[in-house]
Amino acid sequence: MSGLDDADGLPPASLPGPRRARLPLPSAVVPGGPQHDGDITDGLEEAYWSVYDGAAAKATVRQLLARLPRIVRRIGRLAWNTDRPATLAVVLLQLASAAMTAFGLMASVAVLRELFAEGPTPDRVRAAVPQLLVVVGFLATRALLEAGVAVAQARVTPKIRAALETEFLTLTAHVRLEIVDDADWHDEAYRANDRGLFYARQIVSQVVSLAAALLGLVGTAGVLGVLHPALLPLLLLSVLPVGAAAVRSARARFHSFKRWNALQRRVRVFSWLLLERDAAAELRSDTAQGALLAEHHRLTTRIAEEDTRLGVSSAKLSLAGRAVGGIGTGTTYTALGAMLIAGWLPLAAGAGAVLAIQAAQTSLTRLVDVSHLVYEHAMWVDDLLAFQERCRALQPRRSGLPAPGTVRIITLDDVTFTYPGKDTPALNGISMTLHAGQTVAFVGVNGSGKSTCARLLAGLYEPQEGGTVTWDGVNVLDLDAESLQARVGCVLQDPVRFPFSALANLTVSRGTLTEADPRRALEAARASGAEQVIAALPGGWEALLSKRFRGGHELSAGQWAKIAVARGLYKNAPVLLLDEPTASMDPRAEHAVYEAVLRDNPRSDQITVLISHRLASVVPCDRVFVFDGGRVIESGTHQELMNLGGEYAAMFTLQADGYRAEAGETA
Ligand SMILES: Nc1ncnc2c1ncn2[C@@H]1O[C@H](COP(=O)(O)OP(=O)(O)OP(=O)(O)O)[C@@H](O)[C@H]1O
């Protein structure tokens, strides 16, 4: 398919006119990327993978707190739907573990009470031993419970990721083809795949950590409340400065990470170009390695500087945080001392309160850190889930009516089709009738709509604006879309080079990689010329057609084209579309394919559509449709069109003259 739209009806023999837009001379300094003194992350800011980076740093604490419950519910629901027992285990074990922490603290207070009691020291220590054993018991139980949480979490997390990935691929692999052509959809799909699925894996454990930190905080608050209600405001006094310092430091880290991440991604572009097999030949022939390495070096130097800057700033922040936290702790302990002096609470309870306040500060710092992570990562997961929801609305028709196994007549009536984002239609009022047993050809200049029309015939696109395609009188919109696609064998331009065995490269057209019809496979390989290609491979049918795998083989473009034709023939469908199948084949191979497909095996039950720029190959076709600007401007047999003396005759004569002139020169 051509990306150029030159459907403005130039006479075939004329040269293209001068371009209207004049291109100015470029500058002598090549802007290969962000410049040395500019912000190196600029060019990447709007890229799909960075839209939510740094979101947690930008959100206010109130926004953060408002969204967290919704996130926890959503992730909880995902986990619940994936593995109920494991999810239940995580919740119950986590709650029990938090209770153990609180009981442990209470038991520690009891130990202190014994130690601070009246009497000789050995007696007090002896009296404290049973309580000490209780503390050990609580701590050991908590360790066991936390191990249980980790095990249950290890069960549920991979399942969530696998379920989301399967769902994502099932939905995206089936959305209608014209949606896939939409660049915005493509960006969203990549973003969801790259980021959403990645963070979906991490977020479960982060939500569990969040819950653990929150429960820890609640537990210690409960212990303090039991010791003395006046200790609760004291807890606030102690944890608020620590919380504020933690929020600041978490935000600074997110800002820096966004920058660092952008640099890393940019450097990866260069590593990829230096490593990638597809770029290797051109890189060497352009002798461009040095230039790319220089850019790589420039970026890695910037990353090293950014790393150092990050390290220094996080050290400063942590010092500032500790200073603020220290002031809070100092104030708390002063107030605690005053309470002890005033006799509000016994010494043991005061010591217990110190332990509880320290535990609460640790839980709070963790809570702040994890909630920032969860907030940001949940945005990616939400993005993935929203994308999946959108894909659900973009699935093909799944009507109950399957397409028939054979077709006598296909009719296109006033068919129009415009690609998403385009203003001009690619097809504009096409009407034609195709009969079983016929071979028809679509010809015309680049961008005239031939491939689009073929894709419409294949059920890959749907007609728009009231146009209809009917199979034996049944509107294709009443047929199940995938069953219709299964009835059309397609050899498209730029066929996919499946990295499978030679045999699987054929069977895939019937929707299987594991089951083959051996006789049909051999017939298809013979008719397409792929027989010699496959026979010459060590391993024959089983040879792996990809250099990416050990023992794999690479084929030339023409050899791949033969495999693609074989794949189309193997499908053995009532409609066969060949979209420039022989463009990269040598002349003999091309001749052999046309002989086999058009002359040797005419099938009375098949409609064959051939798209070709080599007009000699369309001569034997029963009917030729000439496209221009999305319309059919002429149609008839080769002879009728030659007699007409129109566009087809001009194109044909131009090609034939070219050959004759060559032949004359060499004679
Ligand atoms: N996926 C797409 N998205 C947007 N526009 C497209 C897409 N494919 C084709 N077009 C546009 O639709 C018009 C018809 O393209 P089409 O590929 O059908 O032409 P064609 O006759 O097969 O061309 P060629 O001979 O170069 O293969 C062109 O203007 C082209 O730019």
Automatic annotation (TrEMBL):
<dbReference type="GO" id="GO:0016887">
    <property type="term" value="F:ATP hydrolysis activity"/>
</dbReference>
<dbReference type="GO" id="GO:0005886">
    <property type="term" value="C:plasma membrane"/>
</dbReference>
<keyword id="KW-0812">Transmembrane</keyword>
<keyword id="KW-0547">Nucleotide-binding</keyword>
<dbReference type="InterPro" id="IPR036640">
    <property type="entry name" value="ABC1_TM_sf"/>
</dbReference>
<dbReference type="GO" id="GO:0005524">
    <property type="term" value="F:ATP binding"/>
</dbReference>
<feature type="transmembrane region" description="Helical">
    <location>
        <begin position="203"/>
        <end position="224"/>
    </location>
</feature>
<feature type="region of interest" description="Disordered">
    <location>
        <begin position="1"/>
        <end position="37"/>
    </location>
</feature>
<dbReference type="InterPro" id="IPR039421">
    <property type="entry name" value="Type_1_exporter"/>
</dbReference>
<feature type="compositionally biased region" description="Low complexity">
    <location>
        <begin position="9"/>
        <end position="28"/>
    </location>
</feature>
<keyword id="KW-0067">ATP-binding</keyword>
<dbReference type="InterPro" id="IPR027417">
    <property type="entry name" value="P-loop_NTPase"/>
</dbReference>
<feature type="transmembrane region" description="Helical">
    <location>
        <begin position="132"/>
        <end position="152"/>
    </location>
</feature>
<keyword id="KW-0472">Membrane</keyword>
<dbReference type="InterPro" id="IPR003439">
    <property type="entry name" value="ABC_transporter-like_ATP-bd"/>
</dbReference>
<feature type="domain" description="ABC transporter">
    <location>
        <begin position="410"/>
        <end position="654"/>
    </location>
</feature>
<dbReference type="InterPro" id="IPR003593">
    <property type="entry name" value="AAA+_ATPase"/>
</dbReference>
<feature type="transmembrane region" description="Helical">
    <location>
        <begin position="86"/>
        <end position="112"/>
    </location>
</feature>
<protein>
    <submittedName>
        <fullName>ABC transporter ATP-binding protein</fullName>
    </submittedName>
</protein>
<dbReference type="GO" id="GO:0015421">
    <property type="term" value="F:ABC-type oligopeptide transporter activity"/>
</dbReference>
<keyword id="KW-1133">Transmembrane helix</keyword>
<dbReference type="InterPro" id="IPR017871">
    <property type="entry name" value="ABC_transporter-like_CS"/>
</dbReference>
<feature type="transmembrane region" description="Helical">
    <location>
        <begin position="230"/>
        <end position="250"/>
    </location>
</feature>
<dbReference type="Pfam" id="PF00005">
    <property type="entry name" value="ABC_tran"/>
</dbReference>
